[in-house]
Amino acid sequence: MVEAALKAIADPRRQDILVIVHENELSAGDIASRFDITRPAISQHLRVLVDTGLVSMRRDGTRRLYKARPEGLEEIRAFLDQFWGRSLDLLKKAAEQEQQGESDEHTDHSG
Amino acid sequence: MSTQTIVVEREVRVSASPETIFPFLIDPEKIVRWKGTDAMLDPRPGGIYRVNVAGKNMARGEFVEVTPNSKVVSTWGWEGDEEVPPGSSTVEMSLTPDGDETIVRLRHTDLPTKESAAKHTMGWDHYMSRLAVAAPGGDAGEDPMMNMDM
User: Fold this and answer.
1) Domain count, chain A
2) What is the value of ipTM here, to two decimals?
3) A contact set with B (CB within 8 A)
4) What average pLDDT values come out for chain B (150 residues) when binned by 10 residues?
């Protein structure tokens, strides 16, 4: 889920959509009018954003209204925070081993 | 317009010199010891940055800045069923020596960025103001933004 959301958020067009539905709840038509791409393409982007929990959708009569879902972004942030925490721990371990190896080599040569 | 941005900042203190750590940021054989399973890296501005993360997701981007033993900035996007171009996400890693140790700082900004929000607001306000001038029969003049990379 988070991986899908990461991909969803990595698309520049979807980033733009997220920005404009951040404060205002908008219909697909409102959103499409601000872009120079086709309505079906906008719908496709909106579906991805809704499926990954980044945007919520509500029906109002025949209209579908979209709004950013801050919890979705928070989930991604938490995932990345954990991901980088683990990665940096591994980096620390690998680099310290390397440094240790170099010191040992140095000791061997001088010894 | 206020905006939402994902920013992840972390730092770790490593008992090694920047000279020892730096290759782990730019050398394909060393980067996989802490990140991803295989990598293709061309560490110079504009050079390719491609790391297979978690075995199935290929992160692809470009190096933006490579300052030996000090700083690496790269962008990434995703390859796969749906192609997402690089540049949407930026990772900056810096190395600051502190005695016998080095502080490794990571800053990952994922989007939407302030820039994208600003770009949007700017474009929108610009056209709204032009509309206001043009609507009552006035001449809005040549669009000064025509040649701008928006």
Assistant:
1) 1
2) 0.71
3) 3, 6-7, 9-12, 15-16, 18-20, 22-23, 34, 68, 70, 73, 76-77, 80-81, 84-85, 87-96, 98-99, 102
4) 68 95 95 88 94 72 95 83 68 95 89 50 45 47 50
